[in-house]
Give the backbone structure.
Amino acid sequence: GSKAAGPVFVDFFQEILSVEPARSFQIPDTLKTIRVCHESGYKATSNCPIVIEEIFTEDSIPRFTCPLHPE
């Protein structure tokens, strides 16, 4: 389990990062960041109390706005 694999995992990544520094993940142009309502998962409106950003492919972007917090 994790007691055996954890230290090996940590040692491996510490070694890798000592040779190659960490880089920021670049979101491909084919993906879009959309603000969605945390509660409903639909596109956020200005009335949504908690809004998060999610990454979608073009064909999976929510089409409708939040029905729980309409404009």
